[in-house]
Amino acid sequence: MSYCADSLWVLSKAVEFNANPNGRFAVQHRLNGRRFELDQLSADYARLYSQQIRFAAGQQLSNLNAETVTTIHQYLVNTGILLPADADVETRQLLSFQAPTTPLFGATRCVNFTQHQAGQLCLYGAPFAASFPATLGCRQASHSLRQYAQKIGINLHKAAVRQLANLCQVPPDYSFNTLQNRVNAELLDCGDLHISPFESAALAQRKIALTWRSCLAQGLVPVMLGGDHSVTYPALQEVAAQHPAFYVLQLDAHSDTYWSGTDEIYGDVVPPHHANFMALALRDFPQIRQVVQVGLRGLANFNLPASPRQHVIWANDLQTSPAVFPDPTLPVYITLDLDVLDPVWLPGTGEALPGGLSLTQLALLLREICSHRRVIGMDMVELNPALDDSGRSVKTALEALLLLMNSGE
């Protein structure tokens, strides 16, 4: 790798230096936990970049020859200790992905968003769940899905997609043509976003927002695997920043527009959580033309807050549901909370309620509502493998993910 003399570099704010008794330095990345060891020369060189300086200036200040500087600089860049001081420095500093042992569905490993083409599906895990005790196990959702997909050897190579209609619980006339086209354009897998169980909700949601910003800037279609449903808020934030108007299809047993007494007291200090994120999204993002909430049921929705931009299709009314999304030119964001499915199919979710959808109903619903629509992003949330020892929930969720990825044009 060659370095331009005028290129600016900066020391990552996420790294911490500690001297070892052997005269070397232990360097820890405080966001992703990675550890490195540097000699005195490399540590001194890295700290020259505490403020943004040009590569030529760093070489001059170090008093080292060009070959030595290039070797040291290369290592520091490869380990994320030094970052290019460009407009994307915040993203580079905060985002770290745990590479999957085997990319989901045989996808291509995505290491740099800028190296891929517009329209490609980009999978990634957002293992954040801190808003409610029953959702904590959702941190394991993405890992469990990858593990099961690898165990059964499922892949979405070109020839394999044709078999899905016979393998999934879908009607005889159901096809996976949309997914076939997307796989032909190459399917990407970033791995799981590094989110520590001990970091704040604000930081976790900031990382999620930056990931969406990076994907959308390249025209990619992100597919986020939660996590609890609060992860959808930062996703909608970035979609709203790039699209002046769009629809949201929310498949859910709950409206997620609940605003408790505690929320009223603390106001904006309360971060978006799994039960209030949609209320906040409707308040904060006027770009959302309408939210269509499908599958709602249960007593938790008894005092459902009403918004003129909310259109509710109750689980009992699915057979007679009115037309939705009146403007065919606007794109759609889909968020799938797995508690929309009946617990007979998927008991492993924090707020399971009887009377939900089957996978066949989900397939038909997505086909009916999203046919000939441009889907600009999607997520699947609230899978909690810890609540289902049988493993049935993970298997069902994997099928639901395939149906979700088949949505739209």
Fold and architecture overview:
The chain contains 13 helices and 16 strands. It is of the alpha/beta class and 409 residues long. It folds into two domains: 8-86, Outer Surface Protein A, domain 3, CATH 3.90.930; 95-405, Arginase, Chain A, CATH 3.40.800. Strands 7, 8, 9, 10, 11, 12, 13, 14, 15 and 16 form a ten-stranded mixed sheet that branches. A three-stranded antiparallel sheet has the order 5-1-6. The protein has a three-stranded antiparallel sheet with strand order 2-3-4. 45% of the residues are buried. The model has no long low-confidence stretch (mean pLDDT 88).
Task: List its traits.
409 residues, alpha/beta, Outer Surface Protein A, domain 3, Arginase, Chain A, 2 domains, 10-stranded mixed β-sheet, 3-stranded antiparallel β-sheet, 13 helices, elongated
